[in-house]
């Protein structure tokens, strides 16, 4: 019989799934705390009843990180936000775990003076604790993971009390807490550095892929951009000869020039984008997944209609430029991302994108079309967080986040994503984005157990201090990586 110290805010629902329905969770209880005290009560109840705890924010992770048979905590009702200024850090923003990136943006923009995050994820529906705990990142060239922008964060640990982690208090503990995968406890709040609002010029170009994908060109764009994202949309010329395909280069450059598009125009455009994705892209993708042979034709059509493509330069306020994609959570997708260190001449980045094109052509000639959305990459600086995919002791090291996406349920996805992941592992000791798909890759668990050995040891010192009985350690994949 379950014993409760207090009656907690919970739901009658017995099943939870992530946004893409790639993870189905059937916990004993689903809790939706509204306050810090309720978070503490959940932990106290778990201790009394000998239960494990896992958490979710918005549910945008593809991996099984949130899965549990015991207590499942959804933090989406914790949404308070406060902007403050200090002599030590300048402007900062503190957000409870469930605050969305959209809410954070709105609080910063309405501040006097208006403020902005230096870097952030592309979509704004994610929640603060979700992007922090999984090591999410943006497209900013000189940025690292979003967690590296943290000044501090507060976590309810296994003793049921609130503990603050910060660089000032203990750098080693802070570098464990920056990306904790929920293993230190339940994040209550995060505090980020922010800066005065700035503008970004967004430039889209569509050169021939084989012309643009050269090390010297990549390096030039890296050195001349504030942010950079490069997309390859297969069969964008309508046939299986990918040598004629274009590449989509999205570049952001800081500017003092005023925005060229109003907030009203942006709101209208995003509503239109979401309608296009829901009522046009989704049914066509469903048809394509069912009949893969039509992929070259449908991709040719969809590529020209992608809402976020632009043929003219436009200037946006930072938040609007960073969150240029709207409605991506409408389409159920499979998504795998692995991160590897960039060579000094950028040769490995261009080689891997050309390899993707070659793989897709070879499979298409066999009548197989497992990739019907995009292959893309972003480039960041190394992270200080022990468990971040781009962790490096050298803060000036450069990492490429290499990502492939297809419509959920497309035949052949697991095979092509596994082949690409294992190639990046074999050549560069690449590491996965924790929140995306990686657990299906053959041999991934023993590989991560080995390649992350030093980082895990550093993290484990901190984890064992705050959760000696492993209340928050209820994940088979992580258990094998840490303790196999």
Automatic annotation (TrEMBL):
<dbReference type="InterPro" id="IPR016167">
    <property type="entry name" value="FAD-bd_PCMH_sub1"/>
</dbReference>
<dbReference type="InterPro" id="IPR016166">
    <property type="entry name" value="FAD-bd_PCMH"/>
</dbReference>
<comment type="pathway">
    <text>Cofactor biosynthesis; D-erythroascorbate biosynthesis; dehydro-D-arabinono-1,4-lactone from D-arabinose: step 2/2.</text>
</comment>
<feature type="domain" description="FAD-binding PCMH-type">
    <location>
        <begin position="23"/>
        <end position="197"/>
    </location>
</feature>
<keyword id="KW-0560">Oxidoreductase</keyword>
<dbReference type="InterPro" id="IPR006093">
    <property type="entry name" value="Oxy_OxRdtase_FAD_BS"/>
</dbReference>
<dbReference type="InterPro" id="IPR007173">
    <property type="entry name" value="ALO_C"/>
</dbReference>
<dbReference type="GO" id="GO:0071949">
    <property type="term" value="F:FAD binding"/>
</dbReference>
<dbReference type="GO" id="GO:0003885">
    <property type="term" value="F:D-arabinono-1,4-lactone oxidase activity"/>
</dbReference>
<dbReference type="InterPro" id="IPR036318">
    <property type="entry name" value="FAD-bd_PCMH-like_sf"/>
</dbReference>
<dbReference type="Pfam" id="PF01565">
    <property type="entry name" value="FAD_binding_4"/>
</dbReference>
<protein>
    <recommendedName>
        <fullName>D-arabinono-1,4-lactone oxidase</fullName>
        <ecNumber>1.1.3.37</ecNumber>
    </recommendedName>
</protein>
<dbReference type="InterPro" id="IPR010031">
    <property type="entry name" value="FAD_lactone_oxidase-like"/>
</dbReference>
<dbReference type="InterPro" id="IPR006094">
    <property type="entry name" value="Oxid_FAD_bind_N"/>
</dbReference>
<dbReference type="InterPro" id="IPR016169">
    <property type="entry name" value="FAD-bd_PCMH_sub2"/>
</dbReference>
<dbReference type="GO" id="GO:0016020">
    <property type="term" value="C:membrane"/>
</dbReference>
<comment type="similarity">
    <text>Belongs to the oxygen-dependent FAD-linked oxidoreductase family.</text>
</comment>
<dbReference type="Pfam" id="PF04030">
    <property type="entry name" value="ALO"/>
</dbReference>
């Amino acid at each position: 019989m379950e014993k409760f110290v207090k009656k907690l805010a919970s739901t009658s629902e017995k099943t939870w799934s992530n946004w893409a329905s790639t993870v189905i969770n059937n916990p004993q209880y689903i809790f939706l705390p509204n306050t810090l005290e309720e978070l503490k009560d959940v932990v106290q109840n778990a201790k009394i009843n000998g239960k494990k705890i896992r958490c979710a924010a918005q549910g945008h992770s593809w991996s099984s990180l949130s899965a549990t048979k015991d207590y499942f905590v959804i933090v989406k009702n914790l949404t308070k936000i406060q902007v403050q200024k200090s002599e030590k850090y300048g402007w900062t923003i503190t957000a409870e775990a469930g605050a969305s990136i959209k809410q954070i943006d709105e609080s910063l923009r309405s501040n006097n003076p208006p403020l902005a995050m230096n870097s952030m994820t592309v979509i704004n529906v994610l929640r603060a604790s979700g992007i922090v705990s999984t090591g999410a990142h943006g497209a900013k060239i000189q940025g690292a993971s979003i967690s590296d922008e943290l000044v501090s964060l507060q976590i309810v640990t296994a003793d049921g009390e609130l503990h603050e982690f910060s660089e000032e208090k203990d750098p080693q503990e802070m570098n464990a807490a920056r990306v904790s995968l929920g293993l230190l406890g339940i994040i209550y709040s995060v505090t980020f550095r922010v800066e005065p609002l700035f503008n970004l010029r967004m430039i889209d170009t569509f050169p021939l892929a084989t012309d643009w994908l050269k090390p010297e060109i990549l390096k030039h764009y890296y050195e001349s951009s504030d942010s950079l994202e490069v997309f390859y949309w297969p069969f964008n010329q309508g046939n299986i000869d990918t040598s004629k395909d274009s590449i989509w280069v999205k570049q952001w450059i800081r500017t003092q020039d005023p925005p060229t598009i109003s907030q009203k125009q942006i709101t209208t455009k995003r509503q239109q984008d979401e309608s296009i994705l829901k009522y046009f892209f989704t049914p066509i993708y469903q048809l394509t997944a069912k009949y893969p042979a039509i992929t070259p034709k449908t991709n040719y059509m969809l590529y020209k209609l992608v809402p976020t493509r632009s043929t003219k330069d436009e200037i946006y306020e930072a938040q609007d430029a960073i969150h240029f994609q709207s409605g991506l959570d409408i389409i159920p997708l499979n998504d795998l991302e692995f991160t590897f260190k960039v060579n000094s001449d950028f040769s490995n980045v261009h080689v891997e994108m050309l390899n993707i094109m070659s793989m897709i052509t070879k499979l298409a000639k066999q009548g197989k079309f497992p990739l019907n959305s995009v292959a893309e990459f972003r480039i960041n600086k190394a992270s200080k967080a022990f468990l971040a995919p781009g962790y490096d002791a050298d803060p000036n090291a450069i990492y490429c986040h290499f990502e492939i996406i297809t419509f959920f349920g497309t035949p052949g996805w697991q095979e092509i994503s596994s082949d690409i992941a294992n190639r990046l592992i074999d050549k560069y000791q690449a590491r996965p984005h924790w929140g995306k798909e990686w657990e299906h890759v053959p041999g991934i668990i023993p590989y991560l157990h080995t390649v992350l050995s030093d980082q895990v040891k550093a993290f484990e010192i901190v984890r064992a201090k705050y959760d000696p009985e492993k209340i928050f350690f209820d994940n088979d994949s992580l258990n094998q990586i840490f303790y196999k």
